[in-house]
Design goal:
By secondary structure, the chain is an alpha+beta fold. It has two domains: 164 residues, 2-Layer Sandwich (D-amino Acid Aminotransferase, Chain A, domain 1); 191 residues, D-amino Acid Aminotransferase, Chain A, domain 2, CATH 3.20.10. It has eight helices and 19 strands. The strands form two sheets. Strands 1, 2, 3, 4, 5, 6, 7, 8, 9 and 19 form a ten-stranded mixed β-sheet that branches. A six-stranded mixed β-barrel has the order 10-11-12-13-16-17, surrounded by four helices. The structure holds pyridoxal-5'-phosphate. The site of pyridoxal-5'-phosphate has 14 residues, from strand 13, helix 6 and strand 16.
Length: 385
């Protein structure tokens, strides 16, 4: 992989804080719409090829000033991350596995020929941003702070070429519980005329370009009465909207098996996906103390390719036990219906009465939230700010 030398490294100890002179009123948590309210401050780190990284600054959240010729506006050198901070019962702020987000961001930066940075330094600065905007941290159950690190190419030139000027910034948005009135299973339409990601493409990176092209198919699905797209590559399941996907099957011979596609260039390596795998494996391991409530311990967790024709046949023979997606925004989302080849595949959603989750999905949601809010410790996933 191409590695761009960075002259001056990104250094948290050089961080300067310029408090906003016009702090905003904080809206009620019940009035929050996902990703539409922003805190008072943002972190900005500028890089250019001659100097390397400038001293980072936390200052007022405000519009950016970039050239209309900035490459990001033409050729889309832009990537992002998404992670959350949670308030625990002692009033402390916690990040969930930020090291995985930073490692993914760094990998994306390399693929985009952006400068690299020391992930620990950026985590330190995100912690400082959380401290500066502490009064914005929502405290109601189910709420969190969504954190959006972003990198864009700002070189003013219509020539396609390396990003010799880059802006890394981090903004934050307080978010309410994703499903305010309880979880609701979603309907999916299989994509037949569009793919989200393809072999040797960039579907495994959080590049803006991967998402821009997903909007029209999403709108088509909505017009046909489905909430999200089930992204297939030919007949192979890849992802659910902007989430990783899991399929549960239960037969007397195999017992309960949860399957997710293996990581590859067509799958985004989700932090939630990684966590789901680890929790299911810990649960199935008799020598591990962790258990998922209400889930049989006879369970296999497999990473292998899944085809929609198989899912349809499992629904047909009654062995399909559930389908769900995983991602930072909603954590876990169960699926109840999949539009496929002109018909609907019905997916059971039979967790605890009216929970809106399938049985394993609901237990995973509860377990992940307990770890994220610091009620339960699991490895060192929850990091104090
Ligand atoms: C971000 C994202 C996910 C989920 O990743 P998390 O790290 O779990 O939030 C899954 N699929 C796509 C396409 C994504 O962009």
């Amino acid at each position: 992989m191409l590695s761009i030398p960075s002259v001056e490294p990104l250094t948290a100890s050089k961080l300067r804080v310029e408090p906003s002179s016009s702090p905003k009123a904080i809206p009620d948590a019940s009035a929050l719409v996902f990703g539409q309210t922003f805190t008072d401050h943002m972190l900005t780190c500028k890089w250019n090829i001659e100097r390397g990284w400038d001293a980072p600054v936390i200052s007022e959240y405000k519009n950016l000033e970039i050239s209309p010729a900035a490459t990001v506006l033409h050729y889309a050198p832009t990537l992002f991350e998404g992670l959350k901070a949670y308030k625990d019962k002692q009033g402390r702020t916690r990040l969930f596995r930020p090291d995985l987000n930073m490692a993914r961001m760094l990998r994306g930066a390399q693929r985009m020929a952006f400068p690299t940075f020391e992930p620990e330094e950026l985590i330190e600065m995100i912690k400082e941003l959380l401290r500066v905007d502490e009064r914005w941290m929502p405290t109601e159950p189910g709420t969190s702070m969504y954190i959006r690190p972003t990198m864009i190419g700002t070189r003013a030139s219509l020539g396609v070429g390396p990003s010799t000027e880059v802006l890394l910034f981090v903004i934050m948005s307080p978010v309410a519980k994703y499903y305010s009135s309880g979880a609701k299973p979603v309907s999916l339409l299989c994509s037949s005329s569009h793919v989200r990601a393809w072999p040797k493409g960039t579907g495994d990176c959080k590049f803006g370009l991967n998402y821009a092209a997903a909007v029209a198919p999403q709108m088509e699905a909505a017009q046909k009465g489905y909430q999200q797209v089930l992204w297939l590559l030919e007949d192979e399941l890849t992802e659910v909207g902007m989430m990783n996907c899991f399929v549960g099957r239960n037969t007397p011979e195999t017992g309960l098996e949860i399957v997710t596609p293996p990581l590859s260039d067509i799958i985004l390596p989700g932090v939630t996906r990684n966590s789901v795998l680890a929790l299911l494996r810990a649960h199935a391991n008799p020598s591990h103390p962790f258990t998922l409530e209400g889930v049989p311990s006879q369970l296999t967790m497999s990473e292998k390719r899944i085809f929609m024709s198989e899912v349809a046949s499992y629904a047909e023979d009654g062995s399909l036990s559930e389908v769900f997606g995983s991602g930072t925004a909603a954590i876990i989302t169960s699926v109840e219906r999949i539009g496929y080849k002109g018909g609907d595949v019905r997916v059971p959603v039979e967790g605890a009465a009216a929970s809106g989750f399938g049985p394993v999905a609901g237990a995973l949601y509860e377990a992940l939230q307990a770890i994220q809010y610091g009620d339960v410790a699991f490895e060192n996933w929850s990091v104090l700010v």
